[in-house]
Amino acid sequence: MVHPMSGKAAICGLGMTEMGRVYRSANDLAAEAVHLALADAGLEKSQLDGLLINAGQTRGVNLGLHQTLGLKELKVLTFMQGYGSSAGQMVQYAAMAVANGMADYIACVFADDPLQEGKRTGDAYANRSRPDAMASLYPIYGVTGAIPMYAMGAQRHMDTYGTTQEQLGAIAIGQRQWAALNPQASKREALDMAGYLASPWVVEPFHVLDCCLVSNGGVAVIVTSAERATDSAQPPVYIRGWAQQHNHDVGRAGHDPLLVGPGAKAGPRALAMAGAKLGDVTQCQLYDCYTYTVLVTLEDYGFCDKGEGGPFVEDGKLGPGGNLPTNTGGGELSSFYMWGMTPITEAVIQGRGQAGERQAPNDLILVTGNGGILNYHATLLLSPDAA
Amino acid sequence: MTDNTWIPEPTDASRPFFEGAREGRLRLQICGDCGSWAYPVTTLCQECGSRNIGWADASGRGVVYAHARLARPYHPRHTDRLPLVLAEVDLDEGIRMVTNVVDVDPAGLKVGDAVELTFETFADGGVLPVFKPATS
After folding, report:
1. Inter-chain contact B75–A144, Cβ cutoff 8 Å?
2. pLDDT tens digit string along A99-115?
3. Residues of chain B positioned with their CB less than 8 A from the CB of A153
4. Which CA distances in Å does A281 have to A262, A329, B39, B102?
5. What is the pLDDT of residues A328-356, one digit of tens each?
6. Does the beta-carbon distance from B68 to A203 stay under 8 Å?
7. Is the ipTM of this complex over 0.85?
8. Average per-residue pLDDT in chain A?
């Protein structure tokens, strides 16, 4: 049975700044993204009565964004943090608020500025401080940032199920093929398996090309009620289902957080809300901080059995011409890394039917956001149809 | 950077762990009420909520939950040790510890392999608990 909230809200505006080595503050990028989203939706700034804000690595945007934007009165305003799940969460809370009349138009905005002029990309996420002396040992052990933990997850998958390096490579190659069709993608040059395998190791089994890009930029989406969305300048992209799941093993054995992520529980709840089944999903926009994240997410949602992700992806079904188009803009691996906004931006473009030569069937779009080490998770099901 | 900066200055909360390492022991927190172990430091039991937290010697025995190989140095200690084997080890006490596995063929280690505690001692006397393949 379809949940009464399903399809009662829609994304009516999308604003994306320039992405990559854009040396501007996150706050400035966020403000531009909101203005771009308003223009895209055909709205005046005075019509915006809600603002949800999420900052990335540098925490460079905060609650004060409303002041930067000169938003004198708002009915909804908060700063949120759920790492890579934040963007999906913002859309969910905005949908509930507009569907219940709390506000008319809510902008959900993310921006980040980790890249600094003259500094290497690899330094952007390194050397985050730890709160106590014992946890301060992690960098000495070599476990700094997210890459080592996800690499350990990938290796555990390989040891447990026989997953191969080439199967991870198939994910990177498929997304690069999509990126070649996306003018907004950062990495569009052709990539083959030899090129993937020749990419330097970061933390084996991760090559550089198993890891997402690092980008400066800002993204905003505007969420409104289904009724108002029909008056928008853009085709509405309806929010048909959602869920969240947040898992933490608190340093305990007896859990398997690197092989089974929170999507395994969020997925069925989101599908139930939409009154849909997994087979109704026609394309996926999955959070892809690493190739392995895509593989484990596909398994968690049940596109294949747990452990079968490697053989599932190796035939290229995620890429152009495949039967499960996934990360059709190139994803975080090849387009740009705006945390959970990367999959949402592509889902909106696809949901509107505006993806040009990379347009894939858009009847029901699965969007995931993932934060921490497969800790925090938000699911959205989007569609051009309200029901 | 010299070796003496490698081991962080313990806080009062974590001092028993670092002092234990210098004595060749893996000292971890344990709940005085429900017996659950904790890592890293905590002020209340993550299982029962008790603040009756003490310290005890762990067995130093466990199995590899997950592992990977660091290919680039991110800290001076890594430079002569690449590829450094990163691991999460499930201790017999039910705790999952971030650590390294040493004295092992990096390509030969597998999930589920039994490991045991050992220590790496730096020039300044700093001691880091690590693991090696189990000998018994």
Report:
1. yes
2. 999 999 999 999 999 99
3. 66
4. 19, 17, 41, 46
5. 999 999 999 999 999 999 999 999 999 99
6. yes
7. yes
8. 96
